TrEMBL record:
PANTHER family found in the cross-reference section: CHARGED MULTIVESICULAR BODY PROTEIN
Lineage: Eukaryota, Metazoa, Ecdysozoa, Arthropoda, Chelicerata
Residues annotated as transmembrane: none
Protein name: Charged multivesicular body protein 1b
Domain of life: Eukaryota
Family per record: Belongs to the SNF7 family.
BP GO terms, sorted: vacuolar transport
Coiled coil, from the record: none
Organism (species): Araneus ventricosus
Length: 131
């Protein structure tokens, strides 16, 4: 009985350590996503600055074709920024929020219990809920 208790304590300690590593990995992913967003924003800002300078030059010459072309380029860069921002927001949401549907968890536990030939599933659920 003492050996089983020691194994159970070790299992719980390992599980807690694994969860802590998972939390840390999630935080690192979130920080990496934020850094990527900052880098992308900086690149777009630099591109926009170039477009604005070109627009100033085009406005001075009043070349309508050039102005139209620059406006199209400017709009495309904003669309690209929106797509990249949306992607980064989705990535950050998925890394900072880890939710597993309860039905999936219950199904997996039943499957493991069936494979192990475990008859009393309620006892098994109560054991898992203690952890």
């Amino acid at each position: 009985m003492e050996g089983a208790r020691i194994h159970a304590e070790n299992a719980i300690r390992q599980k807690n350590q694994a969860l802590n590593y998972l939390r840390m990995a999630s935080r690192v992913d979130a920080v990496a996503s934020r850094v990527q967003t900052a880098v992308t924003t900086k690149k777009v800002t630099q591109s926009m600055a170039g477009v604005v300078k070109s627009m100033d030059a085009a406005m001075k010459s009043m070349n309508l074709e050039k102005i139209s072309s620059l406006m199209d380029k400017f709009e495309k860069q904003f669309e690209d920024l929106d797509v990249q921002s949306s992607y980064m927001e989705n990535t950050m949401s998925s890394t900072t929020t880890v939710t597993v549907p309860q039905n999936d968890v219950d199904h997996l536990m039943r499957q493991v219990a069936d494979e192990a030939g475990y008859v009393n599933i309620t006892v098994l659920f109560s054991v898992f809920q203690k952890f």
